[in-house]
């Protein structure tokens, strides 16, 4: 890797990042075409724009693409989808070299794009030192394309002793404004957000993306409400604009169901154990709706139900320099829990990041 290679791969990742909330359910991809040390074409993919980043860069470069090097964060596709294979277009344009950060996790591609390029005489290079950044950028897409389900992230704010709420007064915030602003960035990066009826009744929350950044579709708000206790005058109902769905059970009141349906609010029936909503069924439904990522912002009971059901893929835990103590303050996850240390839910690939003075974020994957 030369200094020039590093510079243009950096730029391709920055271009790809522009696809946040715009490219899903496709991956975020940025492409830079360089010939004789001069950028002749750039492209960043958005789903509504249809064209892939490589095609946009080729259109911009025209005949100057012949003999050029393509820098890209993701392997060019080799299959027919909404658009023709990008690998074929690169070959036809006479691109001489492709430097890519990672292989496409899509089983329909998965190295086939590189192989097609190489067979046509295009020099293909993998930039291994950029692979981790590229992988993190499209981790939701990679999970979705392999499983058909959204990547589920459990997010919560908690004190240093692991409490998310006090037994009496919960006015104010656990974390700082900086941390709450970061949460809005997290919401912006997701296709859907899920909470429980207990949280809605207690906080009368909106659960919207307030980052003020552009997105192709509104953040889909999902409320788990087994008995349909959701109030008609709640903020989440009053702000409904085709961005809310209620996950309920067949035991819920038919009258309440009719009232919500009269407002146009869709409902999905997902019967689970003990008369509660089956969370795996909710996640499967979201996958069928082409939602590649889901953030869970809920209370202790639903947090535990999600962890115990095995639907949580990773956690984002915002720690504040506070201690509540006591036995009545609620922990991250309530419910029966695990009865022995040996059966604890395990995490892997843990990272810690500062968010604000004396506050930090823990990110980890559930094993």
**What's the arrangement of strands in the largest beta sheet?**
11-10-9-8-12-6-13-16-15
Low-confidence stretches: none
Shape: elongated
The SSE order reads: HEEHEHEHEHHEEHEHEHEHEHEHEEEE
Estimate the mean pLDDT confidence.
Answer: 96
Radius of gyration: 23 Å
Estimate the helix proportion, in percent: 25-40%
**Beta strand %:** 15-25%
Name the features.
single chain; alpha/beta; 9-stranded mixed beta sheet; 5-stranded mixed beta sheet
Secondary structure layout:
Elements: H1 3-17, E1 30-35, E2 38-44, H2 53-61, E3 69-72, H3 86-93, E4 97-100, H4 112-119, E5 123-126, H5 131-137, H6 139-147, E6 151-159, E7 163-165, H7 177-188, E8 192-196, H8 197-203, E9 220-224, H9 235-238, E10 244-248, H10 254-262, E11 267-269, H11 279-288, E12 293-296, H12 300-309, E13 314-320, E14 330-331, E15 347-356, E16 359-366
Parallel strand pairs: 3-4, 4-5, 6-12, 6-13, 8-9, 8-12, 9-10, 10-11
Antiparallel strand pairs: 1-2, 1-3, 7-14, 13-16, 15-16
Helix pairs in contact: 3-4
Give a summary of the structure in a few sentences:
The protein is an alpha/beta fold.
Word description of this protein:
With 367 residues, the chain is of the alpha/beta class. 29% of the residues lie in helices and 23% in strands. The chain contains twelve helices and 16 strands. The chain has helices at residues 3-17, 53-61, 86-93, 112-119, 131-137, 139-147, 177-188, 197-203, 235-238, 254-262, 279-288, 300-309, and strands spanning 30-35, 38-44, 69-72, 97-100, 123-126, 151-159, 163-165, 192-196, 220-224, 244-248, 267-269, 293-296, 314-320, 330-331, 347-356, 359-366. The strands form three sheets. The chain has a nine-stranded mixed sheet, sandwiched between helices. Helix 3 packs parallel to helix 4. The two termini are 34 Å apart.
């Amino acid at each position: 890797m030369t200094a020039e290679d590093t510079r243009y791969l950096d730029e391709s990742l920055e271009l790809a990042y522009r696809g946040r909330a715009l490219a899903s359910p496709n991956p975020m991809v940025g492409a830079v075409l360089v010939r004789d040390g001069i950028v002749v074409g750039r492209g960043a993919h958005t789903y509504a724009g249809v064209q892939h980043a490589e095609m946009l860069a080729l259109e911009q470069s025209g005949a100057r693409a012949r003999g050029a090097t393509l820098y890209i964060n993701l392997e060019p596709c080799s299959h027919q989808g909404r658009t023709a294979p990008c690998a074929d277009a690169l070959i036809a344009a006479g691109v001489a070299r492709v430097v890519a950060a990672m292989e496409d996790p899509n089983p329909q591609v998965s190295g086939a794009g590189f192989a097609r390029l190489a067979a046509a005489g295009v020099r293909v290079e993998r930039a291994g030192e950029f692979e981790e950044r590229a992988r993190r950028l499209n981790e939701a897409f990679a999970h979705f394309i392999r499983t058909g389900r959204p990547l589920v992230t459990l997010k919560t704010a908690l004190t240093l002793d692991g409490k998310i709420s006090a037994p009496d007064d919960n006015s104010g915030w656990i974390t700082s404004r900086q941390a709450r602003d970061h949460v809005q960035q997290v919401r912006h990066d997701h296709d859907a957000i899920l909470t429980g009826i207990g949280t809605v009744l207690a906080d009368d929350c909106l659960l919207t993306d307030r980052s003020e950044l552009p997105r192709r579709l509104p953040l889909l708000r999902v409320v788990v409400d087994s008995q349909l206790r959701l109030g008609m005058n709640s903020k989440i109902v009053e702000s409904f604009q085709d961005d809310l769905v209620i996950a309920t059970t067949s035991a819920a009141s038919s009258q309440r169901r009719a009232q919500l349906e009269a407002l146009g609010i869709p409902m999905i029936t997902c019967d689970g154990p003990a008369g509660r909503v089956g969370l795996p069924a909710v996640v499967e439904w979201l996958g069928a709706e082409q939602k590649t990522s889901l953030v869970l912002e809920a209370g202790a009971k639903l947090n535990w139900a999600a962890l115990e059901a095995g639907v949580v893929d990773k956690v984002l835990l915002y720690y504040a320099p506070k201690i509540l103590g006591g036995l009545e303050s609620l922990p991250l996850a309530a419910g029966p829990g695990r009865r022995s240390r040996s059966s604890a839910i395990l995490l892997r690939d843990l990272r810690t990041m500062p968010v604000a003075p004396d506050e930090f974020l823990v990110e980890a994957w559930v094993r």
